[in-house]
Specification:
It is built from five helices and five strands; from the N terminus they run αβαβαβαβαβ. The chain is α/β, with parallel strands linked by helices and 176 residues long. Helix 2 crosses helix 3.
Length: 176
């Protein structure tokens, strides 16, 4: 009889020790994730502000999908400069409508300078005047859309250090 109480007591202590070990492992795993995030941010998580220049003209097939992909990036510090040749361009109005569903990403609509050059080059040149000192990296939206199609992804990566095979232009913005 006394022996049964000893075995019951030892079994209860073993179960409690097992539960304490499991709880300790769970807390250790959670702590590891927090420490990794903290170290990554404290020791060089370089998250520069990115200005994404998106020249638009008319509504192409898949425009809405591309706009949503650019607006739904997880990267925390980017803005989109939408450059149109004409103030009545439907693409400019359409991206503004789509952007209402993504209030985290600032959108700036820009009208390209009147220039006989016209086209994408003029749109990109016009957008350069709207870059601010907070913009540390520059990305061109057309190349990101080509990257999207090339890799068959629903979201092109907007991060510093894209692989060199993607042929995406991404450079630093020179200080003025």
């Amino acid at each position: 009889m006394a022996l049964d109480f000893v075995w019951i007591g030892l079994t209860v202590l073993a179960v409690l020790a097992f539960l304490a070990s499991v709880a300790s492992l769970v807390q250790g795993i959670r702590l590891r994730g927090g420490v990794r995030r903290g170290v990554r941010l404290a020791l060089g998580a370089f998250l520069p502000s990115i200005a994404l220049i998106l020249p638009v003209r008319g509504l192409d097939e898949g425009f809405d999908e591309n706009a949503r992909a650019l607006l739904s990036q997880a990267y925390p510090r980017y803005r989109i400069l939408v450059v149109a040749d004409d103030s009545s361009d439907p693409a400019s109005a359409q991206i503004e409508t789509i952007a209402r569903g993504f209030p985290r990403v600032p959108i700036t609509k820009i009208l390209a300078d009147a220039n006989p050059l016209g086209g994408k080059v003029n749109a990109l040149r016009s957008a350069l005047g709207h870059l601010g000192p907070e913009d540390e990296l520059l990305a061109l939206g057309q190349e990101l859309r080509m990257l999207l199609a090339r890799h068959g992804k629903t979201r092109p990566p907007i991060q510093p250090g894209l692989d060199k095979t993607s042929q995406t232009f991404m450079g630093t913005v020179a200080a003025r």
